[in-house]
Amino acid sequence: MRLNLVIPSLLLYFFFGAAHADEASLRKALEVSFPGEKIESVKKTPYLGLYEVVVGGELFYTDEKVSYLFLGHVVDPQTKESLTSERLQQVKDARRIDTASLPLEHAIKAVRGNGKRKLVVFSDPNCPFCKRLEKELTNVSDVTVYTLLYPVLRGSLPTATAIWCSPNRLKAWEDFMLRNIAPPGKTCETPMDTLIEVGQKNGISGTPTLIFPDGSIAPGMIPAATIEKRLSAASVK
Questions:
Q1: Region 116-130 average pLDDT
Q2: For the chain, which residues make up each domain, given as ranges?
Q3: Hey, which of 15, 76, 167, 228 has its CA 20 to 30 A from 106?
């Protein structure tokens, strides 16, 4: 069985005998490589003097001088299991986004029932899974849904702009997503650049992406029953 190697053999020289680096210094060096990105964690690993770096939900490895960045899997030769996959799952489960840090003043707001619970959704109008999610959300009650337009697919910006520039944004959004009724082709000043920047800064790599009241993240389309369960769990924390 061929295993994925983390470090090509000719690069091993750079890591043997390396002293532990100051993690604060590593963070500063990494900020140069990831300008504008949040360095979520820097952690010393037990293998080859490498440091684990988490940026935007992605996991990299680097040396103490940040001379190289490695994207790949560390594999346990005994069990043949990916230690990186295990860590990625832990990172995913622990990752949080503070909803108070998001520009909800630029959201399309929909109040259902008493609206006590809060759900934030990054959504692209031309994303088929986003449209499926909108149908699921009609079956979730007592929630306020804040939709942040995130037109990252090709050709989505004009549609998102037309929805935002409509006299009734919520109606235009629901008409398009639930009833395939295109919004009038109006243009105006929009917060799209801000929303895309915020999404990228928080590692939102696809749509839809849901953020629950406890800051937990759920990428992709999930059914109403799962949304309801996660809303209830997040509300009691």
A1: 97
A2: 9-94, 99-235
A3: 228
Q: 146 pairs with which residues across the strands?
A: 109, 120
Specify the fold of 9-94.
Answer: Nuclear Transport Factor 2; Chain: A, (3.10.450)
Q: Which distant-in-sequence residues (6+ apart) come within 8 Å of 224 by Cβ?
A: 136, 137, 139, 140
> For residue 210, what are the contacts with CB-CB under 8 A and spacing of at least 6?
119, 120, 121, 133, 217, 218, 219, 222, 227
Note the pLDDT tens digit of each residue in 215-224. 988 889 999 9
Instruction: Supply the CATH classification number for the domain 99-235.
Output: 3.40.30.10
Distance CA 34, CA 29 (A): 9
| Long-range contacts of residues 24-27, Cβ cutoff 8 Å, at least 24 apart | 26/51, 26/53, 26/62, 26/64, 26/66
**pTM score, whole prediction:** 0.68
Are the CB atoms for 143 and 159 separated by under 8 Å?
no
Type of residue at 149: L
Whether 140 and 112 have beta carbons less than 8 Å apart is answered as yes
Q: Which of 80-89, 116-125, 184-193 has the lowest mean pLDDT?
A: 80-89
Looking at residue 6, its pLDDT comes to 41
Cα separation, 121 vs 208, whole angstroms: 7
Q: How far is CA 236 from CA 20, 175, 212, 218, 233, in A?
A: 41, 33, 12, 18, 6
